[in-house]
Amino acid sequence: MKILTIRRRNVIMEQNSYVIIDETGIHARPATMLVQTASKFDSDIQLEYNGKKVNLKSIMGVMSLGVGKDAEITIYADGSDESDAIQAISDVLSKEGLTK
């Protein structure tokens, strides 16, 4: 797990990449946990998989990606609580057994 801070036009955004290890990928239960966690933060939080980004606060968006085992995903957070958001999402991914 590597957290990056990106500067773009004087805006700082954090991102972190993960590899999904769960046999069923990001299915309904962990997707719900991720959405609920992301929704607690003011930051704009996105999930990227296979070149497509969705709002991590949208269960339909997350499920539409069809993230499976061995998929590499990236979480982006941009806002006043972006560091806390990235950490909380990392914790959920680990607790749900999606990543190591």
Describe this structure in words.
It is found in: Cytoplasm. InterPro entries: HPr, HPr-like, HPr-like_sf, PTS_HPr_His_P_site, PTS_HPr_Ser_P_site. The longest helix has 14 residues, at 82-95. This protein starts with a strand and ends in a 5-residue tail after the last helix. The model has no long low-confidence stretch (mean pLDDT 93). 31% of the residues lie in helices and 32% in strands. The protein has a five-stranded antiparallel beta sheet with strand order 1-2-5-3-4, with helices on one face. It is of the alpha+beta class and 100 residues long.
Give the strand order, joined by hyphens, for the main sheet.
1-2-5-3-4
Q: Can you write the helix and strand succession as a string? A: EEHEEHEH
* Major sheet description: 5 strands, antiparallel
Strand content: 25-35%
